Amino acid sequence: ADRPATPRDHSRLLVDKVQEDCIIHDYFYNLANYLPENSLLVLNQTKVFPCRLLGNKKTGGRVEVFILSLLDQAGVYPVLVKSRGKKKIGDQYLFLEGKLQAEVCSINEDGTFGVSFTEDNLIGLLQQHALVPIPPYIRGGESDEQDKADYQTLFAKEEGSVAAPTAGLHFTERVFKSLDDKKIDRAFVTLHVGMGTFSPVKSDDIRDHQMHSEFYQVEAENVQKIENSSFRIAVGTTSLRALESSYGAQGFFFPSEGRSTNIFLHPGKEIKSIDALITNFHLPESSLLMLVSCLLGREKALGIYAEAIQEKYRFFSYGDAMLILR
User: Fold this and answer.
1) pTM for this one?
2) Counting Cβ atoms within 10 Å, is residue 74 exposed (0-12), middle (13-18) or buried (19+)?
3) Once rounded to an integer, what is the mean pLDDT over residues 253-282?
4) What percent of the chain has pLDDT over 70?
């Protein structure tokens, strides 16, 4: 899918009732029909920030800097740099006709760089001038004005993601109204999505795969809702990763000030924190597809994907949705 459905809640919805071994094809605006009364949706309220900067090296060549996080270390931000020639510490880049300058401070083993910027109000400049990051499989990664609205959830609040929590893109005020009518409540987590979400699993043995680390936090009022709920539905793999990272033998243990998680959910692991998951259809060989397989089993997950292809569902970030009822 190159663009989302119009309106958003007209995306299709594949419902898998696991206990009944039953698959239903419907539309997202009917989501409330499949959820029990007094259940709880857990949504990721992270907000995508414009993070692609196009400019020039001080020596003249073109350069693109992709800021990976707004969480800096002593004024140094993690970035990807795309330019010709070897990158070295001290390289300087110019953006916005010289109004913004950047300097390479460190070169990391994982292919990222540490960069400092001359502007204190970096996020303000990014909001005005930088490009929204869309995945490379959508129109070659080249975003436009429409993506500024399309690639953001209705409930986005906390800036810090380089990718949208895409299961949340289907929600509209109409869907929330139908959920409210059925006394289905909402709780929010914040997990800032990093570039690693697009990384394929390349290890022959998936247990050798090193997951990227992502920052998450949950406010006290949401902690109480989550702990007290008898039926939890994670909206998206990022919400599930936050929940499962905070679930142990004694139940939930949410960190008070937030922390990072690199949890990798794959077949062989047991997911205990949720009763249902809303998610999109994911890339082959991705950790996200393995997470779905963790819930369903590999053969069942691939069987559902085959049926979705046969039924001409739209795939990936702007594509259709699936509801897994355990």
Assistant:
1) 0.91
2) exposed
3) 90
4) 94
